[in-house]
Design brief:
The protein is of the alpha/beta class and about 260 residues long. The protein is built from ten helices and eight strands. Strand 1 and strand 2 form a beta hairpin. It comes from Solibacillus kalamii.
């Protein structure tokens, strides 16, 4: 498979997917979202692959959705199409019949953080900047961010974290249970390699079967959350607060929200 914004390498029983827009901090534009959906759907047919690692090229994992893309479009219907691609990629990723590992360095924010949280195992470096920060541009989390935050934190804490949009380092995220391994800077790939070796030496088919039993039982809720996020995001896209949020972001100033 040839892609423009991502790279996929398969070796024996392991696949590595690299988000590859380093000059844009691996921000997810229309093309990357669609390519991720296509890639995850295709991986369902790779019967010999038992582990998938997701990483980011360059200085970060992913800065999230491409805010400049939002600024350049005043067509509110565009979010409907975007949300369809996001729903596709999330469902395909969540139901993959393999163990998924997010290897995080630098920033994992917004949609990038949602994608990481959808992984079975999350490894992040200590100086990582992890944030469900949609609130800063007047949006709600997408990429099933509500679903994954609730799974990891429970409803009350998930709401508070989403509302606050706080940027967490590896230590803070581990203490909350948002990641599984907090490692020294520069050591994420080493830790992931060790985990892969351990997993491949385990009865991994039984592990994957357990994943599928649990994830299949959660699918109705995941789909309901994705529907809610899609409707909510289209609604928020039309608010004055969202317009102010993205203009402030691009202008590198503090936003002035008015609840409109």
């Amino acid at each position: 498979m040839n892609f423009e914004t991502i790279n996929l390498e398969i070796a024996e029983r392991k696949a590595t997917l690299t988000l590859n827009r380093p000059n844009a901090m691996n921000a997810m534009d229309f093309t990357m979202m669609r390519e991720l959906a296509v890639c995850f759907e295709a991986l369902h047919n790779e019967k010999d692959v038992q582990i998938l690692i997701i990483r980011g090229e360059g200085r970060v994992f992913s800065a999230g959705g491409d805010v400049k893309m939002m600024v350049s479009s005043d067509d509110f219907s565009d979010f409907g199409t975007i949300m369809e691609d996001i729903s596709r990629l999330v469902k395909a990723y969540y139901t993959l019949p393999m163990i998924t590992i997010a290897q995080i360095h630098g920033a994992a924010a917004g949609l990038g953080f949602s994608l990481a949280l959808g992984s079975d195992i999350i490894v992040a470096e200590q100086s990582s900047k992890l944030a469900m920060n949609f609130i800063g541009i007047g949006l709600v989390p997408d990429g099933a961010g509500h679903f994954f935050m609730k799974e990891r934190l429970g409803t009350p804490k998930a709401k508070q974290m989403i509302w606050e949009g706080k940027v967490l380092n590896g230590n803070e995220a581990l203490a909350l249970g948002l990641i599984d391994y907090n490692v020294e800077d520069g050591q994420a790939s080493v830790t992931v390699d060790q985990l892969v070796g351990k997993l491949l030496a385990s009865p991994i088919l039984a592990m994957i079967e357990t994943k599928q039993i649990l994830h299949n039982s959660n699918l109705p809720l995941l789909e309901k959350v994705l529907e809610g996020e899609s409707a909510g995001q289209v609604k928020m896209r039309q608010t004055q607060d969202h317009l102010e949020g993205i203009q402030a972001f691009v202008g590198k100033r503090m936003p002035q929200f008015e609840g409109k």
